[in-house]
């Protein structure tokens, strides 16, 4: 396995655009190809901000440090360029696009990757979509529904996983994908991630979660604890288990001290 | 055909009584009289002013030099290439009418339907062949001169149009298509459409108009009169795709009798100014009207829709949905009223207008209204004016779409809801293509 990180975050500071207060205060993180990293932390610790800065959300701005993805300076790239380069973020709150079917959306996304003048073969696309849905054990009619329009929480997350399966990213950032899910929906998401990971072992995953329970289904290589805009501890899966027992209190105390 | 007489001088140069006489020269006596009466109404009716509520946002006096317009009386015999191209994209049809510069140049109907008694012909021909229904319904119950300045002008000076009658129980599977073209700048083209669907019949009609860009304001005024008798089903679609300089003014009225369905879709994409006055009258229990509208304005285009839903009878339903996207410094105006007449109990009437603003200079004005004279009704109205949702654009871009592609999907999805409600062969594709072309123009 290649040992050079696919994602290198160095000294990253970030804030909500046009606000004074930094939410990220110097985050360092290196993910190697094929690794699964989990970032856990209490509400307001900045873990979701990290995901949004990596994906290029216009509502956030980096104030210090750097983010490199496969050697490219992500912070200099538009959100669509990041996606084209192989970054995918599964949203915590996926957005409804009324009147646009999932199939149409994904077709447009794949078409956008092609060179100017090249046309996506519709038959090939249909076949790919069906194959991906079968892999994730989804009903084909799902792709005909308008993107997230009137979807339940579980359906929205399923849709994120389907998009990930079709777009086949090199790095998947899961932004609290497990929040608000019942245990069955959680299993569907975990099954999706694990299936795609098994299919493409080189895919890296950055799993952002508030709860340890997600890690019962997706086994991370590295677990980071984020508190107050910094990574307070990194280690193996045992770190998450420690959190389960003791909570975030000791990290908070350590920072104050 | 050879003529002995030398070509007549083109003496008619303005909208005046001479033009009325000239236009009606070959008409039957009842129609000549009707034209002259209409002209009197026209002369006695002041030009709509922005002081009136209904015309507050469309300043006709400023936008249209009515006195300088020449009536478009000459017609033409050649179908121009752009119209041929758009006609070639149409799917199958039950009948086709081509109208160039206000004169019908061809009207074809599936012979099997003609054998069942369906009549599709130029309105002039219908008036002259003394169709009694034409005399009874032309500019009388639906769009009479008393409706206003432009309905009066049209009733006095209409040159041609379409007459379509579908006899009792005959159901047309494919739409009847009217393809119109206007070529002469600075003219007024005045035409009418009269559709009578008899009991339990079914018909859909697509009225498409195109033109080149004009240097000077060019008026097209269309009076649309739609009758659905008991249990009939009628769909009328207007595709307004004129060039810039076009001033499109439509007066439409639908009269839906017991258990009939009378749906309309107004698509406004072209022209510099588009004004549609649509009145739906629900005249019998069980009548139903879906009223759909879609507009996309850019540059300094100005679209003004003035709709009313008149629930005269109890137990009828009407559902209006108008959606528009506005870019550049375009202006959209929607004014709608639901009127539930006294005794129209158990009315279901809905009215929704939604606008998507794509630029800082575009403006949408939405004025929904209710007037309820019965106590057991279900009515609602709603209006929204919103901008492109930044979260939605980011969501799409995070999947690899660039900003223009993301905007295109959001806009098409937003407007597509309207087209989905009236899926007529070829219309959705054509409108979608036209919107995409506009989006490319705007975002280039």
Describe the structure using short key phrases:
heterodimer; A: 257 residues; alpha/beta; Rossmann fold; 6-stranded mixed sheet; 8 helices; B: 444 residues; 10-stranded mixed sheet; 23% helix; disordered N terminus
Written description of the protein model:
The complex is a heterodimer of chains A (257) and B (444). Chain A has a domain at 7-92 and 170-188 and 202-256: Rossmann fold (3-Layer(aba) Sandwich), CATH 3.40.50. Chain A is globular and about 55 Å long. The termini of chain A are far apart. Chain A is an alpha/beta fold and 257 residues long. A 6-stranded mixed beta sheet of chain A has the order 6-7-8-3-9-10, with helices on both faces. A 4-stranded antiparallel beta sheet of chain A has the order 2-1-4-5. Chain A contains 8 helices and 10 strands. Helix content of chain A is 36%, strand content 25%. Chain B is an alpha/beta fold and 444 residues long. In chain B, strands 1, 4, 5, 7, 9, 11, 13, 15, 17 and 19 form a 10-stranded mixed beta sheet that branches. In chain B, helix 9 packs across helix 10. The longest helix of chain B is centred in the C-terminal third of the chain and has 18 residues, at 403-420. The radius of gyration of chain B is 21 Å and the shape is globular. The N and C termini of chain B lie far apart (51 Å). The chains are: A alpha/beta (257), B alpha/beta (444). The A-B interface holds A 55-59, 78-80, 82-84, 88-89, 91, 94-100, 104-106, 108-109, 112-113, 146, 163, 167 and B 389-392, 394-403, 405-406, 409-410, 412-417, 420.
